[in-house]
Amino acid sequence: MSTILITGASSGYGRETAQHFHQRGWTVIATMRRPEPGILPQSDRMRLLPLDVTDPQSIAACIMAAGPIDVLVNNAGVGMGGAFEAASLTDIRRIFETNTFGVMAMIHAVLPAMRERGSGILVNVTSSATLAAFPFSAPYTASKTAIEGFSEALVPELAPFGLKVKLVEPGLGLSTRFAENSAFDFAAHVPAAYAAHATEVFGARPAASTRESDVAEAVWRAAHDATGQLRFPAGADALELWDKRSW
After folding, report:
1. What residue segments make up the domains of the chain, in order of their start?
2. CB 210 within 8 A of CB 237
């Protein structure tokens, strides 16, 4: 029986992914800052563990409690929207602490055991913002694009040890609480000088079309891929961007 550990599993893509794998017979370790009863189905194959990916002690305690895992899904993330000019460096660093360094810290924590076993899959959830330029999301895009480059470099570095690295790139979500967890309020961070431009940009932006189930299925395909594919776009809007981009 395979075991998967998912970060940021209290809602949205993480929770849906946890349910997706659990329904298919996997043992799931769903992690979140504050585990609460009822967030996910009760089962001997569903464990909830506290985890703050920005806290080294929390990471160490979680990995110790989890035991051996076959797949790590780095899903925890926070959003950031608004004009870059209005963003504070404190907020930008906070975004990178979760979206970039949090991912690196989790992989750093699980790598020794996976390498010794000679198997393991690392799935990093990024964003369709890495596939096309989205104005008014520059710091967020940078935090996710950094993980794309990081993941690409890890593929050949870890391949000799039997480890795989995958990227899942969700489009704009229809029903996720991701925006509620953002550390930056778009409406409050668009200076008057940018207002007309921002209205034009967001008026022309495609409607959200990515479902939570799209992302869960993409993670499932990534975890089972045997072709060497790195990127797995998730959602109709992400797939559209993917088709337009030349790799």
Report:
1. 3-244
2. yes
Known catalytic membership, residue 194: no
Count other Cβ atoms within 10 Å, centred on residue 98: 20
CATH class of segment(s) 3-244: alpha beta
Q: Is the pTM of this model over 0.70?
A: yes
- Catalytic residue (one of 21, 26, 140, 184): 140
State which H helix or E strand residue 1 sits in: none
Amino acid at 56: P
Q: Distance between CA atoms of 227 and 159, rounded to whole angstroms?
A: 13
| 202, 137 Cβ separation under 8 angstroms | no
Task: Examine the pLDDT at 101 and tell me if it is beyond 80.
Answer: yes
Residue 90: CA count within 13 A, CB half-sphere: 0
Buried b / exposed e over 205-217, threshold 16 CB at 10 Å, is eeeebbbbbbbbb
> Alpha-carbon distance 9 to 14, whole Å?
4
